[in-house]
Amino acid sequence: MKVESQKNKRAKQNAIQNHKEESIREILGFYINQVDLKSFMKKKKIFEKVGDLVDKHQNEFLNPAEFQEIQDIYEDYNIGDLAIVFPNPDYEGYTQKAVTFNEAAAIFDEILTVMTEEVTKNQLKKERDSFLLTYLTLDDLIDNQNDGQGKKKKKLKQKKDSEKKKKFNKNNNSQELTQPKDEKPVKIEKNSYEKYLDFMRIYHKQREEELMNENEGFDLKNEKGFLDEIGVGQQGQQNVSQKVIDPIKELMKVDVNDDKQFKKLKKKWSQGGYLVKKMCEDGIDYDWISNNGPPKDMMTLIRFTILEKLSRNGYLHCRQFVSGTGEHIFIVIKSTKEVIQRQAQNMKVTKQIEMGFADLFSLEPVDANFRPLRLKNYIKQILGPNYGDLKEAMDSIKSNDKLHFTSLKEIDEYCESNYKQEIRQLKDIELRAMVIKKLEQVEEYFKIIAKQLNIDQSHEKVELNSDYSITDEEWQVYYIYLDLLSQLLNLLQQHYQESIKEEHFQFRDNLPFLYRLIFGKALRKANEIWYSTHKSCWSDLLDEKIILKNIWDMLGMEPAAPYTQYFQLQNEFGKQMWRKYEINELKDRSEFNNMEKIKITHAITLKHVNMSKLLQSLIADGYFPIHDTYALFGEEKKEKFMKKLIEQEFVLEKTFEGSRQYLLDLYRDLQSYAESTDFDFQSVKQDLRINIKCPWYIPVHHLRDYFGEKIALYFAFLGFYTQQLWYIGLLGILCQSLLSESTGQYKKPIVILFSFTIVVWSSLFIVYWRRKQFLFSVQFGQLNFETGEALRPAFQGDFLRSITDDDLNEQFYPPIKRKITQLFGLAVSFLIILCVIGCVLGIFFFKNFMIETKADPFFSQQLPGLLNSVLIAVFNFIYQNLVMIFNSLENHKILSSYENSLVAKVFIFRFVNTFNAFFIISFLSNYFSSLELCKVNDDTYDCFQILSLQLSTIFISNFSGLITAVLIPYVQEKLMKKMKAIDEIPVPHAFNDIDPFIESQFALQPYQTNEEVDGSVKDYMELTIQFCFLVVFGVSYPACFILGFAQNVGKIQVDKINFVSLSRRPFPQGAASIGNWLVILDIITFFGILSNAGLIVYTSNSIEENKIEFFASILVIFFALNFVIKILVSPESESATLLLQRHQYIIDKKIKGFTSNQKTIFDRSKLNIQIKRVGYHLCHSGVINNDFLKTIKGERENADD
Q1: Is-contact 1040 1034, C-beta < 8 A?
Q2: Using only C-alpha atoms, what is the Rg of the chain?
Q3: pTM exceeds 0.70, yes or no
Q4: Which of 142, 399, 405, 679 could join 671 in a cystine, given CB atoms 3.0 to 4.6 angstroms apart?
Q5: What residue spans carry the region label Disordered (predicted)?
Q6: For residue range 1092-1118, what is the model confidence (pLDDT) as tens digits?
Q7: Which contacts qualify for 830-839: CB closer than 8 Å, 24 or more apart?
Q8: Three-state DSSP class for 462?
Q9: How far apart are CA 484 and CA 482, in angstroms?
């Protein structure tokens, strides 16, 4: 028994060892470019059958496995999600340097190691060992410059070695006389790397002999001789014909943990020869040819390692190509639908539920009390004094069940004709009978819908209290609505049944969406039919074109479905519940639009590669998302990119017939009744065209669906800010005109009144933006954005158990350490800022002293200006670098906190640099009397007028900045295209149309502040500095508000052009607020109160006596106004609060599967709103924890992991 147990133990150990070796061998296969692609594809469950493709494509551009993957990957016409750009290490003139073993290990640890739950420490250890083993196979670097010195050293070394050898032989001879004869000489044991080198020398020698004798057949003697040389005895040579000489196995024997044996190693950084530049047969053009061998330089090894991590661990599709000039190598990354779904669930991505699935019946008409018209007593309670007449009228109604329509147009024409010719002439009792009869038909369809979508209608089984009647005209329109709805639902159900027979399940998966479109069409068409017979100038003027409304129309909001954490269900509800988006010109619909796919693919990439370190170390030149030309420009990708892929059968062209074709026709007919983001009605470029009537208008929904929430929120803020400037700008023009015409005492009340206006405007601006920001976060599911934000790759912390969700491997960094670093950073920042202020004041004092002593004009005029410019440049350079260092040392866990910290530091310095001269002129000019800072002319000294002149100069000069913001990137792009000698005759292959477009994206300007933060910091900074000018010093020049408005209108258009045409696509990011910028705006408002009070009393000379008392009084009034505004105006709008509570109710009912029995207790003092005749008392809402999936019983067990 003991013998058997030992055997089993050894067998298990051998099995574990074999598995480990197989795993390392597989990883090594990626690194040395010898991967078994067929086996790998089977593991990815993408590759199935390639036997029928072998003969056709074995010797062509791709092997059969790659060909099959291409067919699956590019069927959606998406050319790629992301691109990483590497310099070509084999390009002429690329920097060559030596790479030591420890440097290679550091590269893997810092750049290629990211700790995540998906990759275990054991897996990372295998990858690291494989990476270092592959490093040992790279070409050694030979230093040609020191070749002569190396030969001399080599000769000296050989001479010393020979002398040592002679001494050693003498010692051995003398020792042999005294040693016993039986004692054997001691052998020096070689380390593992030296053994491997010995093996490879013999191996290469043997292979050279085999190549020389390959025409003579297999030489058994040579093989036996090889086995003798590497130490395989006679017993091991019994089955020579079956023995496989495996260099990889010998490489795996090297102990990479013993770094002492690699001290002298120096490998090539570049020029490994993986790509070779060869002249074509025409003798004019050249191409880059791959030798398909193992990497021989460090840059190529790093690239292969990234490919392994993304494809093997991240299950992403990766494709490489060389740029037209040969200067760069691009890796194009693309994810599959299955990978996106799995990662979205793992990452707890917030997704919107389909409105038709979650809240379909909220789209039906309601009365002024928000009650559905179909539940009114007018319809439900038919018993009464008129029951006999009503029953007789109902019995006399002829059934129109025999009506059959084949198109939506026929239904529209019938219903419109029926309303004009019959319904309008009905009496009250007849109309009521018609409505009741038609509702019975609709109720039957509602029962089918409720069963199909699992809708709970139990709350409808109540009698309405305090019900009231609506007009006969409204009931007439309601009948048309019911008639339209019944015919549309009847037609839809017929085609739905046909699609089930044809096994076309896309129809079933999009059924809730189709129901939503039909409900929307029925209501809008009914109102259009009514309005066509009731047109008048008065109704056009008051915009009274709707007689029937749903609850969303009553609230003045677009229908908005709730958001919750994404999860997968293996049933038809799981495929119906999530909102879908149109993703290409084929009208294909997906749960994830292009922006969301890029966001998730980017997150997967960051889980495996530290991209910020990769870019900072200049190993990679670029990393960016790829533009979608169909969504951005409206260009069909089939003609632009997919034509050659279709011709060469890499992509199979889709055919549509039967229910598939009808579904497309249905989309086309109903798209005018859909939400603006349901279909790609227009490209992003078309949506962003200037609106002359409303130049601050921004299509936020479209921007969000393409660029992400963060960019959409920036544009929403820019549009809102510009709109608010319009109102105060008109008043500013009036005040500026009065100030220009007035003199002396008449100017004082104008200055005081406009100062009060600025304080009120800035306070209202802040509170109303908070309301708009909150509504944005509710509409786009961003309330819990920070809790679901991914970790920064650069974040380092200890692994602990999470107290909140029991995650046993949550990374944690003590907040106290971060606070200490932040305090130290702030102390250094304030020290530098104090130095700046001190230097500026010192220069002013120096200039003042030089003027008073009547020194040379050079010392009194030119030198101070020169010193000021130099000091600003020096301090700016020092501060910018220190800010980046301190921000990195703070070790922020998520990107939003990293960015907020950076924003605070950068703004403080920018504020001091920009406004120090203004504060000196406004409040400290008396200390520099000789400088004559407030001198207007020989007779006039007016600091207020000097401020006005400086403000006008700044705002007028800012318009030139808008021109350069467009002109410079445009010129750079054109120059780059001319300077690059693009390969005119590239190797013909299926991606000839795709690769140049991706390469052109790299030539655009990146929208980045640094490797981690996008360019929105710069954009917000410009707006915040402008806001500061207006609020703090705007009273001196009231016209600056209208100039600011005009400047922002121009900025909106410039930013649109930059984002669409001149900049790389930014990485889509979520955002719930504008972050620290809102805090900064609040602080600016505070400074504005102080400054306006000071300008009134001390600078404008509006107050001549008791200045301190007046200054204090004005401050109290201003702060009181600010406080009252914040108290009266809630930071959360009523509509957003109501919407949030409805979303919570729907999720509790639809997703959790139950409704909370606990009634919410509302505090009437916190919020009280009145909508129509209904009063709602709602509580002040906070952030809701949306982790609902844990409460779903049985659903997570069926989820696809």
Answers
A1: yes
A2: 38
A3: yes
A4: 679
A5: 147-185
A6: 998 888 888 777 778 888 889 999 999
A7: 832/875, 832/878, 832/879, 832/882, 832/909, 833/908, 833/909, 833/912, 835/875, 836/871, 836/872, 836/875, 836/909, 836/912, 836/913, 836/916, 837/912, 837/916, 839/871, 839/875
A8: coil
A9: 5
